[in-house]
Amino acid sequence: MLKATKIRIYPTSEQAAFLNRQFGAVRFCYNAGLRIMSHRYKRHGQSLNAKRDIKKLLPIAKRSRKYNWLKEADSIALQQACINLDQAFQRFFDPKAKAGYPRYKSKRGRQSSYHCTSIKAGDDWIKIPKLGPIKAKVHRRVKGKLKSITLSRTPTGKHYASLLYELEQAAIKPLTDINAAKVLGLDMGLTHLAIDSNGHKTPNPRFLKQAHNNLRRKQKALSRAQKGSANRAKARLLVAKAHERVVNARNDFQHKLSRQIVDDNQAVIVETLQVKNMMKNRKLSRHIADAAWHSLIVKLDYKAKEQGKHLVKIDQWYASSKTCHACQHKLGALPLSVRSWSCPGCHTQHDRDVNAALNIKHQGILSLKAEGLSVSAHRGLRKSGISPVAA
Length: 391
What we know:
Layout: E1 2-10, H1 13-44, H2 50-54, H3 57-63, H4 75-93, E2 111-115, E3 120-121, E4 125-127, E5 134-137, E6 145-153, E7 159-166, E8 177-179, E9 183-188, E10 192-196, E11 201-203, H5 207-210, H6 212-224, H7 230-264, E12 267-270, H8 275-278, H9 285-291, H10 293-306, E13 310-313, E14 340-342, E15 349-351, H11 352-370, E16 374-376
Parallel strand pairs: 8-16, 9-12, 12-13
Antiparallel strand pairs: 1-5, 1-7, 2-6, 3-4, 4-5, 6-7, 9-10, 10-11, 14-15
Helix pairs in contact: 1-4, 6-7, 7-10
């Protein structure tokens, strides 16, 4: 079983300078490989393999006078850059992935390097090749064999390390007997981030909207600064810090919400959302991006797998909002502005979002049963009352 943890590291000025050079070497290998492959195809119509053809050029480049500075970096990190480029092309050619053509990496964005040899981690330090111990804040200890360390630097200049451990314990087996009362259906929205089948609605914090005025002011100051000046670099750093606060606040909220949902239930049922297509709506795209539904579902997924629980994604074309959960009557049309409606078949009054969550739960239970799992009714629970006396 593999488990990863991300920690903050505090390199000295000399160590930070070395890491910057190493990040630059990794970025150079990725961009140079992309440039060579694109040029070869445009001029000669030939396709190269980054993992096989581009990786062979690394020893040649290190022996040359022009690129001998690549020797300073960890060779594994440079080889991993070629592997990442190959994976980017695989996603591009995979019709299911729907990924775009690989793009060049910028020196102003997030930087990273991968290391898997000559690595160590202590109580308050980590060690990578060609560099002394780096001070670290290890907030969560993992008992296992250290497999790899991935260093990263954010646009604000903070350094992090992702430590991957191999645990001796076997992976937890998924539950086979599920209590229907512990199955939760989730409907995603904008006014409320998540509406569950129990009728509970989680308000959408709208972190980006709250920070809009602050971001707008700092971005305007950045646009006025002269390109290449020191003031523009300072303004860019302020904008990056403002965005980082928004991301951290959103991640903290989603981690706490997903942890609560997974701990309280045995199976979570969600919709299959095509967020990329929904982002084409110019009126709602900013709010949809701020809600970050996909990020929440990813957190629910890996937290559920850690505990042997299930996350089920239902068919994206299932009309959960237009279908009555009581009699399964389906409306012909239901505009987004209609938040409640009455079923013509059974005259049940529905809250649009709660009704959708109940339908999502029902479809999820059917999917679990189709996989061969046992989904029992409420384990003997029944409505309280007085039994009628026999005549």
